Amino acid sequence: MRYLICLILLCIPSLGLAEFNLFQSGSQAEQISPNQQRLENAYLYMLGSQGEARDSFKTLEALQAAAAGGHAGAQTVLGMLYKQGRFVKGDGVQAQYWLEKGAAQGNSVAQYHLGVLLAEKATSNEDLLGSFVLWQQAKKGGHTLAERALKELDYRLTDEEKERAEELWAQVQAERARSQVAEGAQGSMPGQGQEEVEEDVGKISLQRVTAQWIRNRAAGNLFVIQGEAINKYDEPRAHLEAVGRLIGAQGQVLVEMSAFCGNPIKIDELAETDYAEILPIMQNVMGQQEVNRQVEPGGLLPFTIVFKDVPPNVTQYSVKGRSVPLTP
To answer: At 18, which helix (H) or strand (E)?
Structure first.
């Protein structure tokens, strides 16, 4: 097994600018989404180009915002940075979380690197089944390193093990889909005059949801959604997360931002803390003192979602809760 892992690791480059550039939109003239723009800004800050000075602080800030907003490329790059300990302290849990996010959206780079992460942890052929499926998907997406890794792995797995790998992966994907919860609460932006409406939908219920504007000393106006998430499953859950959306007059989603539960932030802290320092707090998967590692049935955790640079045409917001099953 050690020999196999060594061969696989030889196929793994450090995060290079060429691979980072895979996530750019290609044409500066075309219309791009806010999250794509954040990712391209991160690229400029990393390179120090087009008049921007190299700035690891701004690189990470832009990446975290785009990843939290659901951009698969940003999620992938952020996961790789956590894995390699670049711009951030190395963190295997965060690395796996963000790579899983990107892989679930079909990003072949995320699929490849997530497969590598799982292979590094493997102690038996059974542990390599997930890597086998991920690399198959990455290969189908055109990732050449995945093809090389599969060649090293192929001779170790029997046909029966490969078939079982496909079945297991399908079960994992189905469970993840079931764990996603529908909208939990919605309301108008403060000052619009509409009352907030709360709905108990799904098995991660939200309560005491509030929204307000906070004036931050450096970032200006921040839009903050706070509340509590309750585990209403009949089993323990992990990684409770609140996902907020800002919505336009026609019902279109303009911005999406997520935050893990169990990371309370006080109002006075929101007013004084740099936004780049707020983002890692929201993205702490395990929560403070690891309270979000395992949440028992009926367990309650606070959440805080913070939006910066809110579009002027936002009229409403919504927030939903979600979680994942405990890993055996």
So the answer is: helix 17-20
